[in-house]
Amino acid sequence: MDVNIKIPNHLGIIVDGNGRWASNRGLSRSEGHKAGAKRLKEIIKYTFSKGVRVLSIYVFSTENFKRSDEEVNYLMELFVHHFKSEFSKLKDENVKIVFSGRREPLPDKVLKIMDKLTEDTKNNDENILNICMNYGGHAEIIDATKKISNEVLNMLISIDSINEETFSKYLYNELPPLDFVIRTSGEVRLSNFMLWQLSYSELYFPEIYFPDFDKKAFDEALIEYNNRNRRFGGIKYENKNH
Ligand code: IPE
Ligand code: IPE
Ligand code: MG
Prior knowledge:
Blueprint: E1 10-14, H1 18-24, H2 29-49, E2 54-61, H3 69-85, E3 95-100, H4 108-120, E4 127-135, H5 137-153, H6 164-168, E5 180-183, E6 202-204, H7 215-226
Parallel strand pairs: 1-2, 1-5, 2-4, 3-4, 5-6
Helix pairs in contact: 1-2, 2-3, 3-4
């Protein structure tokens, strides 16, 4: 690949299509999630090896609790398993793991391993992996508004000091803006993903189910990103690496 290729500083991936991938093969939805989790492990490594500094992955939305108990329970077990076995290895690869989302009503066993990963990787500083877990973009903005309102009520900050920059500090994590968002499966919607952070990001919706989203598909996504002309409301914008 071209050495001068532009790499997004903050990439978002909406992991989608596990269920359809499985049903096309006559498998259960659980099999699809299992295949998706395996692919995710490979793609996280590949993303960082390409020079992306921050990766946000959307793996479970606040709305996903509407699914059957069987599917939700399977997903929770899968998270615990992968967080313990695969994600813990990122500690030695200088990746800081953070979580975005509401804690309630995640089961204790999931919260416990999430807290451990956060604690174990808090001093890592090369890459950030932001895992959106029981996450909703509306919920994040509401939760930030509650925190900021409390500070105003307690006279810790003034209303006049609230602006885009200060508001960002009350979100689940302080992260740079999203440069590029990939949603697999062919659905052309954002489903409540990082609404604050993606205001100017480039969006890409490849027609591929996540378990099939391999390195080649990732490279194609990067080429697509390189074909975009980001202007941020201006007339001309010279895109640079990072
Ligand atoms: C994405 O795959 C995984 C999660 C949302 C947890 P889906 O489960 O949404 O798969 P489809 O969209 O039904 O194919
Ligand atoms: C979005 O996928 C949420 C995650 C990827 C975690 P969904 O499959 O839940 O989204 P909809 O229901 O198709 O909008
Ligand atoms: Mg889906």
